[in-house]
Amino acid sequence: MTLPIPQMASLDAVDRALLRLLSRDGRATYQELGHAVQLSANAAAERIRRLRRSGLIRAYTIDVDRRALGQTLHALSNIKLREGVNRRQFEEGISALPHIISAAHTTGEYDYELTIGCQDATELEHIVDRLKEEHGVREVNSRIVLRDLPLDPLRILDPQHLRPSAGDRDQPSLRGHLGGAPWLSGGEAG
Fold this sequence. Notes:
Helix 2 crosses helix 3 (41-54). By secondary structure, the chain is of the alpha+beta class. The protein has a four-stranded antiparallel β-sheet, with helices on one face. It has helices at residues 13-24, 30-36, 41-54, 87-95, 121-134, 166-170; strands spanning 73-81, 100-105, 112-118, 137-144.
């Protein structure tokens, strides 16, 4: 049974620091994590287990660089389905296409927004044609991604954007302990 996700205010500075550290290196040991936040390995492990049980940490993943696999062109494509096309069948169909990086069912003028990865504009044209011919797409409005912005997905954990919980006021400052761990900067832990 999954417990309710903790409210942001109930996450203290150590929880936020552990989440940030794990986002940088999901393979970090409890010993490394504990050292970085001034906890024992057991205490760090228990906090991480609590975050997992709550559902806040859902998985540990890898981030594959699609450009290294030849998908050097990315496009954002707004999609309108033809009248009568079954939405679930469309979603199943595109989930089998390796060029679809992400898909969102949206409100507004378009039915979906797809992120498409391909080698070049010619391949994008073939993908768009295939969407129209095989997947019930009526209209596609694509834009080429010039550059991805490196936004930190965990910026929501930044304490300046949150009201501190009672526990935060009692926690020692973690500044200087997050960025200075050698294993975060690529060096070996000592």
